[in-house]
Amino acid sequence: MRSSVCIGRWSDATLVQEARMTQLSGLLKTIVGAAFIASMVTTGLAEATQFNFAVSGRGTTGNIIFDDSVLDTNPNPAVGEYLGAIMQFYININGTPQTETGIPTYEIIQGSSGSVIVGLPGNGVGSCGLSVNCLAFLLGSNIFPPTDPLNFDLTFDYPAGSLSSDALPVAVPATGVAILRSDTRQFFLGSDASSSIAPASILEPATWSLLGIGAALLALRRA
Questions:
Q1: What's the pTM value of the predicted model, to 2 decimals?
Q2: In this structure, are residues 112 and 87 in contact, taking their beta carbons and an 8 Å threshold?
Q3: Distance between CA atoms of 22 and 175, rounded to whole angstroms?
Q4: 136 with 153: CB under 8 angstroms?
């Protein structure tokens, strides 16, 4: 009697195990199909890369994430206007003196919108002058020129020839003349403020899919 009970329990356990394996097999087939479709869908998205511009000067540090897939809205080949290209920014003013008062300032500026202006040597609106290249980040403003007097812009001036075109740069000189300013306040970050650009670490859709797949497998295993 005990033997038949054990056999029955073993049979039930086998059926449960087989059911789980069948469920797992079906899930894996679904995953393979979904992964293939995701790879087709995200192929174009992978070409749009986010970059991180890092700045440091006279106590102020910060990072600005921008999307290089945003198109230039200015037909002038010497001026690039990338409205809405900024995705995130975080600027930490840590003791930098305000130009107007000389008083050290401690303040954090952050947000999730803004534009990038790229200027080659030349005259006119958006141009930097005849002897420099400039890179301006309009923090919190998706129009140019910006209209909110409280919004800041971070501008770097580099020697002429530092930028090869008015396209959004993926590399910049290690140092430049930097100013952080609004209509009411200004902070000079130095004539040799540090700057760099590198790919930003942002999860792509395919990565989120893999995380979801892992969670599904874990739930199945615990079932």
A1: 0.70
A2: yes
A3: 60
A4: yes
